[in-house]
Amino acid sequence: MYSSEGSVEINVVEEKPFQASIEPPQQDALKAALDKDGHIALYINFDFAKATLKSDAQPVVEIVVKSGVAADRLKSAGYGASKPTADNASSEGRAKNRRVELVKL
């Protein structure tokens, strides 16, 4: 709310919980994409500004382990806003940028 002489401005922000709009990959599609392209983006939800996984990330993580990826072959690197794949000006773009990528070496 902002008030000045003779006028009042009110801004309303409606907050809603994040709703995932991208379905987790199927195990066979995951392997096919890695074999074809050498990488795949997984949309795994983390707590805001933390490395803690949200509970809805578990099915995606289980698919990767069941696909035969040994834990000692996994490494992590955080790029934050330095390597976006979409424009962060829209909610759709920000959703696409919330990703974990698997890269076949």
Q: Can you walk through the features of this model?
A:
There is one protein chain. With 105 residues, the protein is an alpha+beta fold. It has one domain (20-103). The chain is built from three helices and four strands, in the order ββαβααβ. It has helices at 27-37, 58-66, 91-97, and strands at residues 2-4, 7-9, 39-42, 100-103. The strands form two sheets. The chain has a two-stranded antiparallel ribbon with strand order 1-2. The protein has a two-stranded antiparallel sheet with strand order 3-4. Residues 1-105 form the OmpA-like domain. This is OmpA-like domain-containing protein. Residues 77-105 are annotated as: Disordered. It comes from Pseudolysobacter antarcticus.
Short description:
The protein has 105 residues and is an alpha+beta fold. Helix content is 26%, strand content 13%. It has one domain.
Outline the low-pLDDT stretches. none
Helix/strand order, N-terminal first: EEHEHHE
How are strands sequenced across the largest beta sheet?
1-2
Q: Structurally, how many domains make up the residues?
A: 1
Give the amount of beta strand, in percent. Answer: 5-15%
Helix/strand class: alpha+beta
Quickly count the helices.
3
The radius of gyration computed from the alpha-carbon positions, rounded to a whole number of angstroms, is 19 Å
User: So what's the oligomer here?
Assistant: single chain
End-to-end C-alpha gap = 53 Å
Protein name: OmpA-like domain-containing protein
InterPro entries: Bact_OuterMem_StrucFunc, OmpA-like, OmpA-like_sf
Region (Disordered): 77-105
Domain OmpA-like: 1-105
